[in-house]
Sequence to fold (328 residues):
Amino acid sequence: MRLSRYRFEILALVAIVVFCALFVFTSSRTGNAEFAGSDTVGSSHISEITGIAEGQFRPLVGQWVPPGREIESALFALQAAIGGICVGWVFGYWKGLKEKE
Amino acid sequence: MEGFLPWQWAVLWWLVAIPCLALGVRELKRVLSLDPEALPLLGVTGGFVFILSSLKLPSVTGSCSHPTGTGLPAIAFGPWITAVLAGIVLLFQALFLAHGGLSTLGANLVSLGIAGPLAGWGVYRALRDTRAGMFVTVFLACALADLSTYVVTSLELALAYPAQVGGTGSSLVVFLGIFAVTQVPLALLESVVLVLVFRYIVQLRPGILIRLKVFPEGKIMAERSEA
Fold:
């Protein structure tokens, strides 16, 4: 009975574990998989069909590029943090409201 | 992959995206003035779009991709408001991460902000008033929103880059193999997590979901009394 209360949490946990297991399995089977972004794979496919080198493709609007992978990952983390703050703030606010009622 | 979309296509997708954005902004104003509790709900659902689209997750194809998170706001607010949320995320990624690009923002809006949410919302609307379970509906809507985003991305690229042999059709198959297949496990995982989030919203603030007519009151209250 108590377990069924948490069935969605358990389901989510199982899904995450299966997802990780799947990752470990595929990465062990395909030894040379680089886990590049699917956008990178797509880009190289386009350069294949057009015969134009990937570096030749330039954005129409000039773009600031993060100088280095570390900075890029910091900015991605920042994006996740902004989302996390929104979500946490609202759930906290709602929980407070519920307790007051 | 910035700079890959030919400018004619970039312009075309912008022309599709702009009216949807305008509709979204109008809808957003209306909803927010109608109900003060809509803003927190927008914060939670939009927050998850921010979080999920920042994660690059590995997949069975040996490459990585992002979940989208757009199913939840599409269910709560409809596809047009979701397009505005997606626009904010895409602008952030284009400006600070060189991810997505500015001229191609229109094309990305069409896939992430419009086509995906529209597909998810369509499933949700089809199932909302049937006997289908609320959480099953949310799951299917979120999964479809995620997947069809990448199906449309593949379509956008296949239209711009038809294969020499077989044209757009065979090019589409290749791009689907790159984007959509990678996306399947991510879409499933994302949807399980979003169902959990939706359940928390039902438990904490069922009132706003009932007022926005997200689901019939009976379904929401049945779930709540069980908790």
In short: The longest strand of chain B covers residues 63-65. Chain B has a mean pLDDT of 93. The two ends of chain B are 45 Å apart (CA to CA).
